[in-house]
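Researcher: Go.
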Amino acid sequence: MKKISRREFLKYLGSVLTLETIFMKSEGWSKEEKKEFYGLLVDITKCIGCRRCERACAEANGLPIPDISEEKNKEVFKTLRDTSTTQYTVINKYETEKGVVYVSRRCMHCNQPGCVAACLVKAMRKRETGQVTWDLNCIGCRLCMISCPFGIPKFEYEKAIPKIQKCDLCFDRFNKGLIPACVEACPTGALTFGKRRELIEEAKRRIKSDPDKYIPYIYGEYEVGGTCVLYLSSVPFEQIGFNTQLGYEPYPKYTTGFLYAVPFIFILWPLAMLGFRKAVEGGKKHREEEKKE
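Model: Structure:
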């Protein structure tokens, strides 16, 4: 029998754990429907920049409600925004060769997420229905942040007991048989929720039926191994802020390589972050007790 090295064994173990995370069971829709990933098709050509998706997202997740008045929108669109701990989805305005284009941005819900593979305690989970979610057992190591090719997970640095915040495709609503709040609120049909396979078929149908309207490419079909959030556009994606140099390799391939190359992360970093978190919690409790006295 061929002997395997410790490094090879760790890589094998990492692959097994990644697969286990990807296929973890979730609550919700029928077993038959759970056999496929669900996702979101974003047709940029239909977006009018109304930001109702932003407001619906905030309302569904208990976040600060943004002002989406016409006057406020003029101010908001002067700068390019990123998602944040208080805004899981944002819309930006781009001046392109075909005029003004509005683009919504949120978690891409990768088929094989780098954030999930990097998470040491499985706080980041890839649900078998496609959504990438976050759980409270997080130790605050933030490896998910540096492992995400799209820079999506955000950390609440300002809070004593911080969380990682990002879009989870309204997983709680999904478990109740509802579509994501942003999709429900969109007045133009720019957002379509459904099975990933069917969304790709629909995207290809639109491209074929109206080749002058769309560029012949679906962003997210192959990027980093494929994502559950897919995009159609009338202009090249590099013109509207998309990274077109990510390649097609799933990011866990790079993430696990990084982790195994730096073994101390498995022991020292989690312990350090856990200790820091406990210290912060203890300090907060002490301050509260002093106030009572």
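Model: Residues 9-29, 260-267 have pLDDT under 50 and may be disordered.
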